Amino acid sequence: MFSHKAWGQGDSAQRPRVGKSAAARYFAERNRTSEKTSDEDESDRRPGSSTSPSNAARYLGLHLGTYLDEDVYKWGANSNKNVGKLNVGVSYRMGEWVKSMDLLLRVDFSTFEFKEGRALKMSMLPLVSFPDAKSGFPLYFGGGAGVGVFFKQVRDESSLSFDYQVVTGLRLFNLIGMTGLTLEAGLKNHVLLLSDGQYNGVFVALGSVFNF
């Protein structure tokens, strides 16, 4: 009889716990586990949680450069040479297309020197570059087109232009905190809209890029 009673107690100890109280404990434990996993995932997605460029939804680039070579057609006197001088600008990443390309807004300021005087132009254009910044690949290629406005222009020349650029560059993110480095080269061209002038310039620029 003693052995039968002991066997019954052992069977009771091994019997799985069921009932409302057991179910409540099970769901409470599962909710705690789910909340912990959700918090960890949210922390991984937080912009400041990593220095990887893949976590940066936006970036802002600043560049300073100059023109190395050029062709000038019917803009100013025919004897003008090496008119392209300083180029400075900003590029802002507005979005991404199909996880393959970035859409940027670029604003450039360029100075030109002629025998007749100086010219100052602002270019504003959308620019597509690939691969996208989130890929982390350091090299990129791109192109864009937009409008140019001359704040100062050679006499009797158009104050509006059609601008287009083709660029290639090196982009290194997060070298110091959220600040990186860019090196870019390519073509920056324009066609004057209200006169016959045209300019084709080869440029190189050095800059910085900021993730946020």
Number of helical elements: 2
Tell me roughly what share of residues is in helical segments.
Answer: 10-25%
How would a textbook summarize the main sheet?
8 strands, antiparallel, barrel
At CATH level 3, the topology of the largest domain is: Porin
> Mean pLDDT score, rounded?
83
> What portion of residues belong to β-strands?
over 45%
Q: What is the domain tally?
A: 2
| Cα distance spanning the termini | 76 Å
Order of helices and strands: HHEEEEEEEE
> Which strand order do you get reading across the main beta sheet?
1-2-3-4-5-6-7-8
Outline the low-pLDDT stretches.
1-13, 40-54
- The coarse silhouette is elongated
